[in-house]
Amino acid sequence: MEILTPILVLGSLGVVFGALLGVAAKALRVDKDERISQVQELLSGANCGGCGYAGCAAFAEAVVNGEADPSLCSGTSEENIRKIAEILGVEVKSGPRMIARVLCSGTCQKAVNNARYEGIYDCIAAARFGGGEKACSYGCMGYGSCAGACPFGAISVNDGVARVDETICTGCGVCVATCPRKVIELVPAAQNTFVLCSSKEKGAAMKNICSAGCIGCKICEKNCPEDAIHVTDNVAHIDYDKCTGCGICAEKCPKKIIGYRKA
Amino acid sequence: MQTIGELVLLSLSTILVNNFVLVKFLGICPFLGVSKKVSTAIGMSLAVTFVMTVASALTYLVQVYLLDALGIGYMQTVAFILVIAVLVQFVEMVIQKFSPALYNALGIYLPLITTNCAVLGVALLNVQEGYDFIHSVVFGFSGGLSFMLAIVLFAGVRERLETADIPKPLQGFPIALITAGLIAMAFLGFSGMKF
User: Fold this and answer.
1) Which of B72, B83, B93 minimises the CB distance to A24?
2) Stretch B6-33: mean pLDDT, rounded?
3) Nearest chain A Cα to B104, which residue?
4) In degrees, to the nearest 5, what angle opens at C-alpha A58 toward C-alphas B42 and A50?
5) How many Å apart are CA A77 and CA A36, to the nearest integer?
6) DSSP string for residues in A151-203
7) Higher-scoring residue by pLDDT: A96, A204
8) What residues contact B38, with CB distance under 8 A and at least 6 apart?
9) Phi, psi of A127, deg, nearest 5
10) What ipTM was assigned to the predicted interfaces of this complex?
11) A111: which DSSP letter?
């Protein structure tokens, strides 16, 4: 009989508590829009913060409340974004798929070093401390802060320059915000011609610090049939809206720093 | 007035001399798990402090008016786990309903606390030490504060370790465990102090 007391007491405790919780769950229920969880399931779930919200959950809430456009999430596939739009009954504003690209080709052999850096192995730290080892003060420092920041693991540092794996990159823009030198740019994924230098150094000075630097000779500008490439601040820029990807600039560039990939 | 002085002493000695984490080694799991950032450490320890205080009060009542009254004090572990689990669930619901901001800050930590042994520990220690209701609540509250002190100190050190040049074999968890050991040793300095 002695065993009955604890069984009864604990059993009734459990029942009472269970009932209390059940009542409380009803009474204290918070009505959440179920579309929020539906939308959240369709999002990429990377919590990269590229949309500007605190995470996928916050973004899903904003989307359902009509504060944000579903296409702001670049990590989500177009199909899922269409599904989200269907759930909410809105039209999607869709642009071309964007990917990140590192506009520098100053690898260890090409870029001249003018210092030894033994501080924290991190671009942001190195930038604050004098700019790392390379003499060029505009290019990729190669300490891989972007690679660490990339929520998808799409960036790796190869031979002193960060490279983006286009197949993995979702164009969330976290690396663009991380890079202290601002050498990473979001470009349309279909774009096939790039100026792989960001240095605003003048031509003569540039020759001394990097053999893969834009010297601002304007040969590309003169040869472009579409008027899509221009030299400003001693470095060529491509207007991606005008560029047709013919590749003439890449061919004519004396420093061979315009990257071109046949479509 | 003697009692207030006594309570202050109890509180101080719980926080420093008998620190829950660093001396009694209770609540090690969240101590290592949620201590990578100071902000999350503060969130976690606030939630723990809250639950420990309320749990102390509740388990005291359960012990005295239910278990002792019926002479089944040996069931305290089971009963306390039940009470704490329900309490945490209930608190989570109440917070979610009445303070979404607080829920967003503490919400994700609350389910973790259900299995935090510091909470069960404080309930069992209250009985073991024979504290009355007021002492139990104060002991629970200062137990929470001692958890906060330990985890915030630890998180501060770990944040700095992020940028430190640590030998490869020690990176990550090993250096965290060494740090925890060093902090615990530092707290040994308080032991033997009589307030």
Assistant:
1) B93
2) 88
3) A58
4) 100
5) 18
6) TT--EEEETTEEEE-TTT-----HHHHH-TT--EEEEETT--EEE-------H
7) A204
8) B152, B155, B156, B159
9) -65, -35
10) 0.71
11) B
pLDDT tens column, A33-69: 788 888 888 888 777 777 778 778 888 888 888 888 7
Which of B66, B86, B100 shows the shortest C-beta gap to A21? B86
pLDDT given for residue A109 in this prediction: 87
The confidence score (pLDDT) of residue B193 equals: 66
pLDDT at site B195: 54
Residues forming a β-bridge with A232: A235
- Look up residue A119 and give its two tokens: 């501080």
Cβ atoms of residues B47 and B110 within 8 Å: yes
- Count of CB pairs separated by less than 8 Å, A with B: 45
Length of chain A: 263
Nearest Cα to Cα of residue B112 among B32, B177, B180: B32
Q: Confirm whether pTM is higher than 0.80.
A: no
**B59 and B103 in contact (C-beta within 8 Å)?**
no
All structural domains of chain A, each given as residue ranges with its CATH number in brackets, are 34-88 (1.10.15.40), 96-189 (3.30.70.20), 191-263 (3.30.70.20)
pLDDT of residue B58: 92
pLDDT over threshold 80, residue B104? no
Q: Is B69 on the interface with A (CB under 8 A)?
A: no
Please say if the pLDDT value at position A262 is more than 70. Answer: no
Distance from the B165 Cα atom to the nearest Cα atom in chain A, whole angstroms: 7
| Chain-chain contact of A13 with B79 (C-beta, under 8 angstroms) | yes
CA dist B176 and B157 (Å) reads 9
Strand positions, DSSP E, chain A: 98-102, 155-158, 161-164, 184-188, 193-195, 229-232, 235-238, 258-260
> Quick check: B94 contacting A, CB < 8 Å?
yes
CA distance A24 to chain B (A): 7
What value does the mean pLDDT take over residues A151-161? Answer: 89
